[in-house]
User: Fold these one by one.
Assistant:
Number 1:
Amino acid sequence: MEDFNNIRVGMADAKVIKYPGKLHTIGLGSCVGIALYDVDTKISGLAHIMLPFSSITVHNTNKFKFADTGIEMLINMMEEIGAKRKKIVSKIAGGAQMFSSKVNLDIMNIGNRNVVATKEVLNEFNIPLISEDTGGNYGRTIEFNSNDGKMFIKTIGHGIKFI
């Protein structure tokens, strides 16, 4: 049974909470975890996106799979429970290059493409990115705390940190 105040966000998923509580997701390799936080109300949201833009597919049945549609839906979910867009800030983690390739093609680096797309979309919505832990070649597990807006990041072989 899931703790009411510690909510798990799956892959290609998003959740929002009111203070107090925590949101967490596991398995961020090339995926990006996007935490949004209203600094006044402490309403928080976390999305776990897998791909940069929904335009790459015709049948976009899961909007949380993509940075463009996932971030927009997450903002809407937060506003529905009282967040104010002008008070929302963001933190991101993930976007790793999990597999090495002898051919250095940008299309193969989905992690970097996810990070770039995430930043573009946040910028389009005028949401400041205040901290990030992205890139590298290792996975991450993150937990976002609605009390203080801190993101806890745990990695294998690269320790833990707060941003």
Number 2:
Amino acid sequence: MSVKVGDTAPDFTLTSQNGSTVSLQDFRGQKAVVLYFYPKDDTPGCTAESCAFRDQYEVFKTAGAEVIGVSGDSHESHQRFAAKYNLPFILLSDKGDQVRKLYGATTAFGLIPSRVTYVIDQQGVVQYVFDSMLNFKGHVEEALKTLQQLTA
């Protein structure tokens, strides 16, 4: 079952690239969260998407949001990926894709983990879902547009 607009975002706790644990609940009442699921560290599409989030990270922060990327890679892999591309935001390791399954962001083309972005407001309610394997920058653009509408 997929998480949809209007649903309360399911809480989770995962390990970040620096080895600390991060829970979605940590942000509730504090800031909005842009949660993006991506297939794999250091692949062309995922690098393009993550770098697009990096390039707009200050704009997300100004809009009162934290960006969090999630894939099945290890936290060590995330650490290398973040360092290589100067990614300033949180990357979480979802070994076994449990959180991906919880959100219903499972596979694209029946083969590879899908690329889905959720905009979650401060109250933990999903305000927007963007699902596209190939429109890497669209994930960033649509998330920013949604955040700007929330704060308007």
Number 3:
Amino acid sequence: MSTGKLTTHVLDTAHGCPAANLQIDLWQVYSSSDRTHLKTVKTNADGRTESPLLLEDAFQPGIYELVFAVGDYFAGLDVPLDSPMFLDQIPLRFGIADADSHYHVPLLVSPWAYSTYRGS
């Protein structure tokens, strides 16, 4: 049994607060044209998910993708946005190599920019 986990955290840098109620889709990627949808979650008031996205036996080495619905999030805040939006869906594709490690994938986002890194 693996002891690792996958978590995420979304911060709204335009407003200086956690991005609450932002939808995130998690995919497992097998090739450039083959992937499986694993789950859809929303962030809580702290910009985090209520539980890890992957945990224990579900947390396996491989390629994964988190897709953050930032367009819907900012539209819900009545932020004036261009049409089409500059950023709508942000896909972050990353690899998990060690099933016994914690992989934390934070997203710092505004309607015009984003940044990510492997957190702790």
